[in-house]
Amino acid sequence: MEKSRVIELDQTCYMPLFTRYPIVLSHGEGPYVYDTAGKKYLDFLAGIAVNALGHGHPRLVEAIADQAKKMIHCSNLYYTEGQAQLAQKLVQLSGLDKVFLANSGAEANEGAIKLARKYAKRISQDKVQIITAEHSFHGRTLATVTATAQPKYQHGYEPLPGGFRYVPYNDIDALATVMSEKTAAVMLEAIQGEGGVNIPDQGYLSQVRALCDKYQALLILDEVQCGMGRTGKMFAYQHEGVKPDIVTMAKGLGGGMPIGAVLGTNQVVQAFSPGDHGSTFGGNPLACAAAIAVLAVMEEEKLPENAQKIGQYMMAALEGLKPKYPQLIQTVRGQGLMIGVKLHKPGKDIVNAALDAGALINCTNGDVLRFVPPLNIRVQHVDELIAILEKVLTKA
Ligand SMILES: *Cc1c(COP(=O)(O)O)cnc(C)c1O
């Protein structure tokens, strides 16, 4: 189909929810994607931190194809081997006790919120408050968009579910002021993604943990974006040795197959009984096979370590650009391969220019260039990106 025809059909038949770039992508290989005109792009967005193994990783493709031949879906009324195996793996990796599988980040967070509410009700009927952070992002369902403390995502959807309170991120005093016996849970990203790659001060998460313990509130960490090896450890909370009561994950987990997970401690998940929560598609054999393959490759190819190493290299390279473009670049921040460059002005034009120059990057929170590439990239790919950025920044 002609590119113009694809765009015309989309604009006629698809809900007008996305501001799309004027290219039609067709396939990918490793850290590269191609459009229908055959143009090649270096992919440092990776489906927004999803294609953790890059595109077309043979192990992932094979796992999906093999499983598709056996069985794509069956009901959660029956046991499947893949689901049990994946559950065991996620329990081992996270240090929590039990898992529920969903299909997306928002669904994982929705499950976390429901679990926290059920648990807290056992302590006291009015223990319903859930505290989240400004500039957070937790998803697009009504409860998760309410947890997402950004008015632009909530506008027009009122009345929103009750019981949510917002505090500034990385501000322990603000949290301490709001918390009380009525607090059921504090829900935070271990590193904020959509909010601009915001990394809390060392010690912040431990202090939040202590406050949660003081008020018998649960600590829910949303690792949907920063989890799955991206920051150099399997989960970002492991940098500080903090143990959440509930953790959610999704994006990188299936390497591109839709899957999300919520894990809780035994103490907390006791609040759930059969029928309290569920999903038709969640934990289906195809998604589980993909996630098992992704986790196996992450382990064998030491991808968290690679993310750490290449991330350091990339941060240094970006720092090196700062003195060359002081009127553009304000700060460089990140952990592993979750990196943000805060600009002195909106980043939209730079993202568009990078697209023309052959790189997919993204700007979040208006003025933060965000880089969340596949975790198996090498130094040469970073060099290639930096060369493209230099070209773009020189003209910006
Ligand atoms: C992307 C994201 C979500 C939502 O995930 P979906 O799969 O789009 O529902 C939730 N939390 C964080 C931190 C995210 O980055």
- In N-to-C order, the SSE pattern is HEEEHHHEHEHHEHEHEEEHHHEEHEEEH
- Our Rg estimate from Cα atoms comes to 21 Å
Which sequence of strands runs across the widest sheet?
4-10-9-8-7-5-6
CATH architecture of the largest domain: 3-Layer(aba) Sandwich
Give me the CATH fold name of the largest domain.
Answer: Aspartate Aminotransferase, domain 2
- Tell me the β content: 15-25%
The amount of helix comes to: 25-40%
The total strand number stands at: 15
- How many domain modules? 2
What sort of overall outline do the alpha carbons produce when their principal axes are compared?
globular
Poorly predicted ranges: none
Distance between the termini: 34 Å
Chemical compounds bound to the protein: pyridoxal-5'-phosphate
Tell me about the biggest sheet? 7 strands, mixed
CATH class of the largest domain: Alpha Beta
User: What is the residue-averaged pLDDT?
Assistant: 98
Enzyme class: transferase
Pfam families: Aminotran_3
Subcellular location: Cytoplasm
Catalytic activity: N(2)-acetyl-L-ornithine + 2-oxoglutarate = N-acetyl-L-glutamate 5-semialdehyde + L-glutamate
